Amino acid sequence: MNGTVLASLLSGARIMPVLTIPSAASAGALADALAAGGATCAEVTFRTPDAEQALKTMAAHGGLTVGAGTVLTPEQAERAVTAGARFIVSPGYDEQVVAKCGELGVPVVPGIATATELMRALRAGLDTVKLFPAEALGGLATLRALSAPFPQARFVPTGGIDAERLTAYLPEPAVLAVGGSWMATRTHLAHGDYTAIRRLTAEAVGRSTR
Ligand code: 3PG
């Protein structure tokens, strides 16, 4: 089950920093700041030209288990795994991406926004999905409503969540972890503000583990 693997990768820190990295040159310093804040995993989104190299650098750097996000095609999943991704995240549910991850033997966390998509994920043998975009979909109320008919499902709500909203999701039994970019925003990354990244990560990890 993908949730069991993901839980072991997270090793207690129920936070998934979502990174959109402008330059691979900053990847090592970023990995250090996240790890110093207590993060165990991070998702590098395939949204910038440097994403693949940044993933590679972070994976080789050590200290964090690095996965790929915004994976939209089977080819991207393959490239991400070659670059060192230990898990794959997608904003939506795509059968071909899920099948490719199965072939590659890498855990995949697909995005779902409806009960229909969740049923597809469960039928494919996945027990954990990304609820995306969580806040725009209705946040915790939507997560609870989806959870009622699917008590076996676990969620990684992501999208529009910040340090304050995080605390609402964490106590929810169906929430495996919470994802978001608030710990390392585009602005932090553009300015190389690793002090803020470390502080915000530590704050989030502290909330997630107590
Ligand atoms: C994602 O790719 O998971 C989201 O863009 C992260 O959402 P956020 O930037 O609203 O945290």
Mean pLDDT: 95
The CATH architecture term is Alpha-Beta Barrel
What is the CATH superfamily label? Aldolase class I
Strand order of the largest sheet: 3-2-1-9
Reading the helices and strands in chain order gives: HEHEHEHEHEEHEHHEHEHH
Number of helices: 11
Return the CATH topology: TIM Barrel
Uncertain ranges:
none
Please tell me about this protein's structure.
There is one protein chain. This protein is an alpha/beta fold and 210 residues long. The protein has a single domain, classed as Aldolase class I (TIM Barrel, Alpha-Beta Barrel). Helices cover 48% and strands 14% of the residues. It contains eleven helices and nine strands. It has helices at 2-10, 27-36, 51-61, 74-83, 95-104, 115-123, 134-137, 139-147, 163-169, 186-191, 194-209, and strands at 15-19, 41-45, 65-69, 88-89, 108-109, 111-112, 128-131, 154-155, 178-180. The strands form three sheets. Strands 3-2-1-9 form a four-stranded parallel beta sheet. Strand 2 (41-45), helix 3 and strand 3 (65-69) form a beta-alpha-beta unit. The longest helix has 16 residues, at 194-209. The radius of gyration is 16 Å and the shape is globular. The model has no long low-confidence stretch (mean pLDDT 95). Bound molecules: 3-phosphoglyceric acid. The site of 3-phosphoglyceric acid has 14 residues, from strand 9.
Concise account of the structure shown:
The chain has helices at residues 2-10, 27-36, 51-61, 74-83, 95-104, 115-123, 134-137, 139-147, 163-169, 186-191, 194-209, and strands at 15-19, 41-45, 65-69, 88-89, 108-109, 111-112, 128-131, 154-155, 178-180. With 210 residues, the chain is α/β, with parallel strands linked by helices. The chain has a 4-stranded parallel β-sheet.
